[in-house]
Amino acid sequence: MGTIEKDRQLDHRDAECNDRAIGSALRDLRETSALTARQLADESGVSAAMISRIESGQVSPSISTMTSLSGALDVPLVSLFRDVATERTDFTHVPKGSGVVSTRLMGDHKHDYINLAVHRRRDLNFEAHRVTVTQQDSELPRYIGHGVLFIQVLNGSGVYHYGKQKIILKEGDSLSVDAELLHGFTEILTPELTFLSVQSEARR
Q1: How many helices (H) and strands (E) does the chain have?
Q2: Which of 24, 72, 130, 187 has the most other CB atoms within 10 Å of its CB?
Q3: Do 131 and 145 meet the contact criterion of CB atoms below 8 Å apart?
Q4: Torsion over CA of 95, 100, 101 and 103, rounded to 10 degrees?
């Protein structure tokens, strides 16, 4: 009986910690949106008193309540769970010279890349690659997607197009873009170009 009672006490403490974490996330999101509790209540249909109790960690909000609040704040439901403790997390350590080497074929074009990190979380996708492109007669691929892309040239140089913008990137240069616009290298100016590519996007 002692063990069962102890487990119940631990579960109760975990639930209280989760309630406080959800309440803290709700308060931060509300304040970031410059909304008072009364304004959020009007937008969500959840009473201001209930919002106050959730933010102070006094109650465990239902999924329907959290869905109404996240909808009024125009954020994914998982945003309210961002500070909730989890038993599952991943990390990736890639020693120098390591990584999973892959080759991408797109029509007549071919380039190599090394996977440095891939994370698939409930709220976002994150990828990091080291890409090597050589001068070829084939047309270089261009992309369109979601989220934000960051690249940094490690060696070589090339011409990068982002929408109607034309940018020459040289060794040490970096660039970050919203991935919703057509983008990509269109010309390699050196025999070989190597760059770091990091992309993050919300899961849909």
Answers
A1: 4, 9
A2: 72
A3: no
A4: -150
Angle at CA of residue 34, ends 32 and 35, nearest 5°: 115
Order the strands of the 165-170 sheet from edge to edge. 165-170, 157-162, 183-188
φ and ψ at residue 187, rounded to 5 degrees: -155, 135
Which pairs from 65-73 meet CB under 8 Å and 24+ separation? 66/22, 68/44, 69/26, 69/40, 69/44, 71/44, 72/40, 72/43, 72/44, 73/29, 73/30, 73/33, 73/35, 73/40
- Cβ neighbours of 194 (radius 10 Å): 18
Of 101-105, 185-189, 193-197, minimum mean pLDDT range: 101-105
Q: Is the pTM of this model over 0.85?
A: no
